[in-house]
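Appendix C reproduces, verbatim, an entry submitted by the partner laboratory led by Prof. M.T., so that reviewers can inspect both the input and the predicted structure.
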Amino acid sequence: MKDKLHFNSQTIHGGQEPDKAYGAVMPPIYQTSTYAQTTPGGHKGFEYSRTHNPTRQALERALASIEAGEFAFAFGSGLAAMDAVLKLLKPGDEVISTDDLYGGSYRLFTKIYEDFGIHFHFVNMASTDALNAAINENTRMVWVETPTNPMMNVIDIKAVAAVCKSKELLLAVDNTFASPYLQQPLLLGADIVMHSATKYLAGHSDVILGSLVTNDKHLAERIGFIQNASGAVPGPMDCFLTLRGIKTLHVRMQRHCENAAQIANYLTSHPKIEKVYWPGLEGHPNHTVAKAQMNDFGGMLSFVPKGANYNTAIQIIEKLKLFTLAESLGGVESLAGHPASMTHASIPKNIREQSGVVDALIRLSVGIEDVRDLIADLEQAIA
């Protein structure tokens, strides 16, 4: 029955069952490092919590369910999950990545794994032309982030997957900005889906956690080995909080999208705003792809004030009262950020500006407050 549920029911019931010990509706927080054994190797499925923990297992089952996957793995952060994916590679391998992506991802690629002999190419994937041109005999993986951070570009996952399948390349998709509510990359041909579950999945700005989901048994075995051997796992309390957040993902995402749509339209018509980046706008260059690939257009948007520079952007952000100036995104509260000096500061200025991340760019994570209050806050700050 539970395998046939619609998404809004899967967030609450998918992969879940009452606790077998006492029938608890929510999985208990198994705050333990080890488990009693009757004889060496004789245990009830759990021996050490780095390897397995019942609370983490409950979360991983839920993650697999909402991403239309069979195998899921939870990590201590989104970057820890990415790190596990990159450990599937070896020196000499090459990765083709979206050129517009989270600064922490770029830092992990270029400052850590480049030193281990893995080479990265950053290309514009608005079409598959640049992707095809970058593929060579050493290419092993394609890394896609969609919608991208912070320019909100949307990449056609199905088209990229077709290229990867024809070349026998792994396709990993960072689904953080969309969440499974808006798109399920495994159904579009991806091999691995990554989340910074800190964001929309947990949804309350109170936990750091990452995840990987796949349908490939061989990949799952390798990722499971890396998860255990490297040990970058989340604690049971973080797993509990993330699982609790997932149960309201569908209602939160609906409001995030509704609010973002109204704010995007407000900013588009504002005389002091030059550019607005949100996939739901008909003028967005990837709007057609977004409309076909996503169930809605998300709660993230970016904008550039007219004639603005670094100082103007900072002045606007500092005047916001309801939007909180902070890193991160995807929580119930609205956040504002300055990518050039915050989330993307690790990317050299000339490189980030090539993808549009200019000093005047402001990024908003639109929360679930009353949208009238959010627009009023933007109005006073921009004025």
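Residues 277 and 297 are 11 Å apart (CA to CA). Additional entries are available on request from the coordinating office.
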